[in-house]
Amino acid sequence: MRIVDAHTHLLPDRLGRAIRAYFLQALPPESFPYAPEPDLAHAALRAAGVARCWSLPYARRPGTAAALNRWMSETWRDDALVEPAGTVHPGDDVAAVVDEALGFGLRLFKLHCAVGSFSLDDERLAPFWTRISDRGLPVVVHLGHSPAGPTEPEELATLDRVASAWPEARIVLAHLAAPSVHEALAVVRRHRSLHADLTPVVFHPVPLAPGDLDGVAHKILFGSDLPSLGMPFADVVAHVRGLGLSPEEEQAVFAGNADRLVPPPGGIRAS
User: Fold this and answer.
1) Structural domain boundaries in the chain
2) Would you call 43 helix, strand, or coil by DSSP?
3) Domain 4-261: which topology?
4) For 171-222, what is each residue's pLDDT tens digit?
5) Residue 271: its pLDDT value, please?
6) Which residues are within 8 A (CB) of 43 and not within 5 positions of it... i.e. 6 or more apart?
7) Cα–Cα nearest to 111, from 82, 85, 75, 134
């Protein structure tokens, strides 16, 4: 089975270690089976049988996105496994940072509202939404107030407003806004271009049952959050396979939907 992991973080060593240190404030080191260094995370994804992955950076404060975008492009642009993403913070010169990222050849973006302490509907992001809408590029968005992951139902209102204001924006809602997944699915169903991923929140798979994805499997992507994943990769795959999807829906979730949003360079190759 072809797998495209649409939610990973193969980041610079220093940033990867800082993210891991954040989690280790409350968790023992053995909580994480995957090392944060990008070369080791890359090897782990290869060993798990992943054909492609989206590597998602994010900016905690203004002034950091441009250098991170350059590193993502220079490190991964010729890598057969990794599709590097860009990011931006609303405190940046948004138009300039995004245009530079596009010039680097980056084909998707990540916004992390909790880590960056901003709202998805911040008016300063208007140049960003214009550019990705015009170019049909996806953006993975992490809502919520906590960098650790959880999203409250009321926090979905900003997503609803942005998806209404920018109907062509190909937004991918990270973690399906867990634990608020049923409220999130209602929003996903309302907007034609809105997608979501099934990335676990550290130890916890997205809480879904068979039948929950009826009618929306064509808008759902597989993700692991590796290396910030507190369970074996195989368990994430098994959870998705237990959702009662048809073979066609399952393959769309594991690879087809991500390949449609960001086509592989040169087409799909056997893996």
Assistant:
1) 4-261
2) helix
3) TIM Barrel (3.20.20)
4) 999 999 999 999 999 999 999 999 999 999 999 999 999 999 999 999 999 9
5) 43
6) none
7) 85
